[in-house]
Fold:
Amino acid sequence: ATLKELKILQAFIAGLQAATLNNNGLDADVLERLQNPLTIPLDLDESPELRTSIKLFFDTTNASEDVYEHVCQTTERHMDHTHPNEPQELLLSLYQVKQSIAEITGIHSFMHGMCPDTCIAY
Structure:
């Protein structure tokens, strides 16, 4: 490794050692979940609409948000048509499924501008 690479590695290590959850802009509930994660196994069989919504979310992660919503609507219409006398649980909206995944995993999205005042229009 070159001296430049070693300096970069050392700076990275120093940054990790100085990392803290204080003053980071995270909500209190997000910090609580990070510091106290779930300790019991999650049983998605108790919530088939959540299980199906999460499965659809992961199946459509490379698609647009509209694709997720349309697949959910199509699935719900199909269930209404094929099982008209059974009450149907609605699948979660994209926002709801993302919130559920964040709650389950403790992993929340955090938007942070890396290059302020450098907007470039194409």
In short: The mean pLDDT is 85. Residues 65-82 form the longest helix (18 residues). The radius of gyration is 21 Å.
